[in-house]
Amino acid sequence: MEALLHDLLLNQAWYFTAARGLTAIIILMSIAAYAVLLERKASAWIQGRIGPNRTNHPLIAWIPGLGTFLMKGGFIQPAADGLKFLFKEDALPGHVRKTYYVLAPIIALAPALVVLIMLPFGKLPTGEAISLTQHADVGVLFMFAVSSLGVYGIALAGWSANSKFPFLGAVRGSAQLISYELAMGLSVLTVFLAASAPGQDHGLSLVSIVDAQNGAWNILYHPVAALVFLICIFAETNRHPFDMPESETDLVGGFHTEYGAFKFGLFFVAEYGHMIIGSSLFILMFLGGWHILPWVPTLGTGVVASLLGVAAFFAKLCFFLFFFVWVRWTIPRFRYDQVMRIGWRVLLPIAVLNLIAYFLYYALTGAR
Amino acid sequence: MAIKVVERRPLTLAERSYLPQIIAGLKVTWDNMVRPAVTLQYPDERPAIPTNYRGVPTLVMDPNGREKCVSCQLCEFVCPPKAIRITPGEIAATAENAHVEKAPKEFEINMLRCIYCGLCQEVCPEEAIWLQSQYSMTGTSRESMVNNKAKLYELGGTLPDGHHKWDKKKEEAERQAHEGH
Lengths: 368, 181
Known about the structure:
The complex is a heterodimer. By secondary structure, chain A is mainly alpha-helical. Chain A contains 16 helices and two strands. Chain A has helices spanning about 1-10, 10-45, 60, 65-70, 75-85, 100-120, 140-145, 150-160, 165-195, 205-210, 220, 225-235, 250, 260-285, 305-330, 335-365, and strands at about 120-125, 130. Chain A has a two-stranded antiparallel sheet with strand order 1-2. In chain A, helix 5 (about 75-85) crosses helix 14 (about 260-285) and helix 12 (about 225-235) packs antiparallel against helix 14. Chain A is globular. In chain B, the strands form two sheets. Chain B has a three-stranded antiparallel sheet with strand order 2-3-5. In chain B, strands 1-4 form a two-stranded antiparallel ribbon. In chain B, about 15% of the residues are buried.
């Protein structure tokens, strides 16, 4: 036992793994917290309001200029929101299946964290991808597989809550995920069909996809696939207009009706985590990843170029998070039957035809 | 009468795809977003109150500092929710305004009953009761929501008066007394 502990403490890889996990949690939590702030601020702007502008801390308020700016911008609001979730009474309703009820938010959040670790978001001067793991080349297959597991959290929450509205929400969420996963996968296939030649290594690697977008971005060559994928990530992340499992106007709160305090907070973070992952995948596959502009070559391979690339990626990510919010406050929710119709009778045929068209084009012309 | 047949056009493919409508909607929300906010940050910023606003009813004095109410109790009788309670009183014969004869000994308006209808102001023959610009009335107990006479005069203050009804009456009485005898 002592020897094992000794090994554990001396093994550097273990430290790195722990540090990576912690970094993933910190990054996800802070981006999610500020995405919530963005959501509140942007919705306020759209509705002609000001948004959160009161929260402050005496120590920050004391700084002249900056303190007021931080307060007016609502930048301290996420801390207050988080603390509120943390200190609320964590009630456990009597009618729930307790084990699964507690397990559900964890299962919802874990896939988001795992996928985040795999996400490449820049390139080192040495040519390696910047990511929280060294195995960023595992690729898109793994990401789709794991991020789809998030719906088990929703299904489990709906079932264990033992109440009809959460159950309806969970059923809708599962049906929606199954419907849109197909079109999503098919739209992604066209991109990989273009990017990887037969026999090439890392055929499904996101890094090689981004490298292939050094000139034109994929959205220009695959507009239909990009559109289908975009609609599908809205559906997969359960955001408006596809927030079937939540749909607070007809299902109270959907799958998280029976949840409160930090367990609800975890669902909340998981939703934003899936938004981050969905947007990142879209950026990596269609919007050139860490390339700054289409047809603009990267500035060599120096540190500055690396940092600029990471900055470009995060700028695109911020835009996408804003875009999610913007769409949410623009259009109403689709009806459930409309969601199913769009998924099966519109997006799936379009994705299939698109894939066949690109396949035939590449097969007949030999072009890449 | 000629019948005009309106063509019922089926939805076009673009309309059925929702996309042009969604893009138009995004433009609408974007325009809203860049427009300045209309929020009035209430406790810090106060709304502009129009002059004919019907706020909390108050009692006013004339420019000479004389209380205008003569406790005729018309407002008490007209008040639909019976919020006003007046205890009439005499004015001492030695007082400067003894010719007015009467003044309220106590004047209470229960703001928990008041409906801000303004009938008291309308019915008052002395223009003594006014619904002015105060719109926020708070208290920590039921008793504190009953405005007594002192509070009503504090809220009301002095309003300009074009009539000087009782001054004229006094002058007239003095003139008559002077001429007649």
